[in-house]
Amino acid sequence: MPLSSSSSSSSEQFSCRPPPTPPYNPIPINSKMDCSASSQSTKKNSYSLERFLQEPASPSPRTAHKSGYRPHSSMSRSQALQSPTSSVGTYPGLGQASNRRPRLLLMGQRRSGKSSISSVVFHKMPPTETLFLESTTRIQKDPIQLVPIFVLERGFIANIWLLHSSFMDFQVWDFPGQLNFLDPTFDFDHIFGELGALIWVIDAQDEYLEPLSNLHTTIIAIQRFYPAINIEVFVHKVDGLSDEYKLDTQRDIMQRTQDELSDNGLDNVQVSYHLTSIYDHSIFEAFSKVIQKLIPQLGTLENLLNVLCSNSGIEKAFLFDVLSKIYIATDSSPVDMQSYEICSDYIDVIVDVSEIYGYDRKPQGQVSSPTSEAPSETQQEEEEATLEASSIIRLQNGMVLYLREINKYLALICLMRKDSIERQGLVDFNVQVFQNALQRVFEVGR
Amino acid sequence: MEERKGRKKKVLLMGKSGSGKSSMRSIVFSNYVAKDTRRLGATIDVEHSHVRFLGNLTLNLWDCGGQDAFMENYLATQRDHVFRNVEVLIYVFDVESREFERDLITYSSCIEALRDNSSNARIFCLIHKMDLVQTELRERLFNERRDVLESRSLGLSITCFQTSIWDETLYKAWAGIVYTLIPNLPQLETHLHRFASIADAEEVILFERTTFLVISHVTRSSIPNPFPDRFEKISNIVKQFKQSCSKMASNFTAFELRAAGFSAFIDVLTPNTYILVVMPAGAAESATTLMNIAVARKHFEKLERDSSVRGVEKLERDSSVKGVETGGGGAGGVGEKDGIYGN
């Protein structure tokens, strides 16, 4: 018990301290806009993350609007093109009301693997099935997660998928051919104005000089107006390459980019590189790192996890986004790939089993009612249960995986030894405290 | 001892070279992941393997290399040797094969040899590598192929499955095949039913331990589950997870999930089986269900040991499925309630 009390007090400390606030005032969210911009399901939880995760620093979109960079004609044209049923109000939301979540943009040459990445990471598509993905020329209709927006620009067709994932906006933007930044009809602000990170995908198994020069053009153009956007380069499709070759490729790409940027007088641009493949966990790992940079409360989250770990005998704790299997925070002990992989596979098991058995049993109420004799208590239990699922897996080598659903999107996964779980009551209690603290962190963030 | 011998079942695995016989075998019986099967080379002649299944059932698996020279050999000089005493013939067709007509001719000769040597053998045809076909077309293509195969089977009854090593269809097919071989199945099912009703479970599934193939299942839920293929799906899910556990040089022993509408438990039942118990929400504390499984464990172990002894009646008399009563008690309406612990 002393353990747990110390945990609670210290976590309160953390939550009392206001988390780093973004340097600008969040623009008041128009409630109507808000509802339409987020998918139907996101409103159920009062403390869902998305509201509080703001981009750390992007130039205020309002001012950018006034600068007149966005020609009126193109705006109305693209608005006219969107399907009325799928995304009324979503499109303007892009420019105005959606600075609530980190927004990612995935760019790259044709066939570099952008659609595959988004299908695998955000859609749980088995990597092998991405072979069947057609090149992105038509809109894939997905009622839940992907809100397709079709933008016709001069000279190329761009297909933007807006993904209302758990706590981030995610766009895949596919453009064949050269992007002309000087074209006045190019709706620059619309695309980059709200961006947290630009992910550029390069096919490492292909000739990459041309894509690289496109990348350079893009970086240079973006840097002028939006220096706050994180530039992330995914050196993709590295499965099948030898370790040496992988690193050589990465080094070469880094070197060329560095040279090109300093030639243009941009010496201080931070560009991060990740070796990725959809056939293993590297793509998730890379996304985790990208996302973590965009979460202003990261430090607080890490501290909370540290406190939780030290007080409950937990070896490693991850805070996962369930849908995408991206971890948004972990305690400060080093992450080893193995424990990440097993946690991520654990989520798969939970999600799959829940999908199979989590069907609606409402009509069953009449069947089960005669057996439940203490209605008030069981009902309360049920209500609690709907809030958070919990699970334990015991492994033969004495390790235990512990999962607790934190809210609709987030799950806490802990790795611990068998003896720690023997005091499961304590662990449960500490996790509950952690959960409350987390909720308060996000409330302050609001 | 003699009975032990009798329980060795000869299973022939045949099909054209490269159709995926060995890949399938390694995934189901040797814990390979689908990806790893790339490493497998061609099978030369016949590879024999003995797979202990459920402890007392041994599958004598003949993985027959499918190159034409071998095939001719099986059908000519080794005809008797290969096709005698066969319990099950599994014939694998590559859905992408360009010479389907030729495959059919070989298939027919195999069926003929089988009919001559072991007329009681069951025949399973697997239309394999279905993942290479677009999802919408799969069902139609499968039906077409099945009709052709049925017409070419010399009047013998065959069972067809569409399979792919990349999804759960593989487990469906193999569970279907193995199901026909389990000796004391009706008995096992009776006891599983009784366990399910005592534990007040919504669904109970029994898995073989190493292969995680479904042996039997009991569903008591009144609302039909929207996933009719959930059994093999779970096989697949757990197998995948076992694989990732093995990366940590471990294996998983128990799984417990409490979610909004249900709670699920996977635990070791006997040395050869795992059990999955799905409880409706709020029906019982986790500890109660775990206790139920622990109590049932002894009983099922005994059942497994005794299964060599014939006579269901004897077992019926012996059986005293002990259980912890759950909920209000209405559900556990089984005669023998000795050893019931109240909560």
From TrEMBL, chain A:
Catalytic activities: GTP + H2O = GDP + phosphate + H(+)
Hydrolase is among the record's keywords: yes
Name of the protein described by the UniProt record: GTP-binding protein
Source organism (scientific name): Tuber aestivum (summer truffle)
Residue ranges, annotated region (Disordered): 1-103, 361-383
InterPro entries named in the record: Gtr1_RagA, P-loop_NTPase, RagC/D
Nucleotide-binding listed as a keyword: yes
Biased composition (Pro residues): 17-26
Gene Ontology CC terms, in alphabetical order: endomembrane system; fungal-type vacuole membrane; Gtr1-Gtr2 GTPase complex; nucleus
Protein purpose: GTPase involved in activation of the TORC1 signaling pathway, which promotes growth and represses autophagy in nutrient-rich conditions.
UniProtKB/TrEMBL annotation, chain B:
Pfam families, per database record: Gtr1_RagA
Feature: compositional bias, Gly residues: 325-334
Any single GO BP term: positive regulation of TORC1 signaling
Compositionally biased region (Basic and acidic residues): 311-320
GO cellular component terms listed in the entry, alphabetical order: fungal-type vacuole membrane; Gtr1-Gtr2 GTPase complex; nucleus
Record localization: Cytoplasm
Keyword Nucleotide-binding recorded: yes
InterPro entries (alphabetical): Gtr1_RagA, P-loop_NTPase, RagA/B
Superkingdom of source: Eukaryota
The keyword Metal-binding appears for this protein: no
Region described as Disordered: 311-343
PANTHER family per record: RAS-RELATED GTP BINDING RAG/GTR YEAST, RAS-RELATED GTP-BINDING PROTEIN
Protein family membership: Belongs to the GTR/RAG GTP-binding protein family.
Protein name, per record: GTP-binding protein
